[in-house]
Amino acid sequence: MRILIVLPAIDRVRVTAASPRVPNRKMKRFSILPLTTVAALTPAHHEVILCDENVEALDLSADVDLVAVSFMTAYAPRAYEIATAFRARGICTVAGGYHPTFRPDEAASHFDAVVVGEAEGSWPQLLEDLEAGHLRRIYRRDAPCDPAEIRVPRRDLTEHNARHYVTTDAVQASRGCRHNCSYCSVTAFFGATHRTRPLDHVLAELADLPRDLMFVDDNIIGDPAYARRLFEAMVPMKKRWVSQSSLEIADDPELLRLARAAGCIGLFIGLETLNEANLRAVEKGFNDRAGYRRKIASIRAAGIGIVAGVIVGMDSDDTGTFARMLRFLEITGIDAVQVNIMTPLPGTPLFDRMDRQGRITDRDWSHYDFRHCVIRPTGMTAAELQNGADWLYAQFYRLDRILSRFARSLVTLGPVPALVGLRLGLTYRYDNRREHIVGRNPASRATRHGHRAARPAVQKPIPLPLWQLANPSELSKVVKRTDSASF
Questions:
Q1: Domain boundary among 124, 147, 170
Q2: Alpha-carbon dihedral sign for residues 447, 453, 454, 460
Q3: How far is CA 396 from CA 101, 123, 173, 337, 372, in A?
Q4: Is the CB of residue 243 less than 8 Å from the CB of residue 299?
Q5: Mean pLDDT over residues 73-90, rounded?
Q6: Percent residues over pLDDT 70 in the chain
Q7: What does DSSP say about strands 174-176 and 194-196: parallel, antiparallel, or unpaired?
Q8: Could you tell me the residue range of the domain that residue 59 belongs to?
Q9: Can you give the CATH number for the domain in which 64 is found?
Q10: Residues 6+ positions from 354 with CB-CB distance below 8 Å
Q11: Residue 140 forms beta bridges with which residues?
């Protein structure tokens, strides 16, 4: 069979035949591991084609025998459009990924078959059944897969589009997370388990990759003993990598040192909130709000940059949350931030609770991208939450603040992490400008009275010692080039 595996994209970034230009968002694209992993599980006698709508137009008239679409909740409407188009031509369609796992009946109303949970085991069985002419509607495993079953992804299938990704060399050493944060779909998908691949499998995969790569683990230190062995083995490899981790890495100085020695230059860490009551409410009390500053300082002192994940609109948030968060991010030296509006994803305890409370106000799945308010918050209005989140994004990624962080990171982290932070910051700024994200601070007097908001009295950006740190003419070229996002 000729099999097309698709990653759908939302409207504002989708590449189409009518709009073929790929948005300059390279720093926010990394691999397409769900697709390349499914491709690796496909028996060799089938031909596999991949399409990521973020970087190439999907041909709805493609000559294929099977179309498989992997998607999260925000991409469900587009996935259903794709399925409808191919089914109208008599082509078999299969859904997989997070949203179909949590809403299998909904997905099955649009697709011929649905893979619930992990693809290992289920996907090969589905293909066998399809060839035999008795396809089932739902495929699911009775238990999580053995990590030894995880295949090396088919990276060869991404080579023609590799230039559009910050890296296509994504590695998964483990799956899942032991924590039970109530908003997290990872916990719901993997059942609060954390499984590690055989270390020799991971090291063999790493040996075949270039220096720069990414671990896409949900928590690279979820098993500290395993992480220690992995990092020790990686030290002589001289790799450079980024990953995701809990803040708990700062509680183990030796593990932190080993991560840096193994080549770690950056970590995405979910800080979520500055409010202890919020942390307890979402089962994330282990984050230890009182230790935030010390732990962030320890990680950055080790030479590792931090991209912080924060959530606004939690039940104990108020209109002052946004200015307090901006001040905290600046004071602690966070290198980049991902601002998420509180979003109850289907399949999570948070969704079930808010659904029971009648607080979900929008069930248009395309709005479940963490950038739209789909709930009735408790400490502010929905409009204030939306405006405050947009304002926080726009303020953090002001050009002067981006350059200030770059200057600081050149000194504290070194040139490579600093340049990564610069390019990431300018990419977020590009997105904000492209989508006209400005927002208003809902705590300001002008906003409360319905007028345009003034900037709050937050900490001023650090003065820029750029001209002592780099050749001015060269730096100006970098800023001009990256500010237009022509990476």
A1: 147
A2: positive
A3: 35, 43, 32, 8, 18
A4: no
A5: 98
A6: 91
A7: antiparallel
A8: 2-147
A9: 3.40.50.280
A10: 344, 360, 375
A11: 116
Whether residue 63 is found in the same domain as residue 172: no
d(CA 27, CA 486): 11
Q: How far is CA 30 from CA 26, 42, 142, 215, 472, in A?
A: 8, 22, 31, 10, 31
**Residue position matching structure tokens 């559009």:** 164
Tokens of 324: 């307090």
pLDDT at 471 over 60: no
Cβ-based neighbours of 155, under 8 Å, separated by 6 or more:
31, 36, 168, 169
Are 198 and 140 members of one domain? no
Here the tokens at position 29 are 């694209």
At 263 the pLDDT is: 98
Number of domains within the chain: 2
Is residue 254 within 8 A of residue 221, CB to CB? The reply is no
Supply the Cα-derived Rg of the chain in whole angstroms: 23
Choosing from 97, 126, 147, the residue where a domain stops is 147
Rounded Cα distance between 286 and 304, Å, is 21
| 141 shares a domain with 287 | no
In tens, the pLDDT along 289-313 reads: 889 999 999 999 999 999 999 999 9
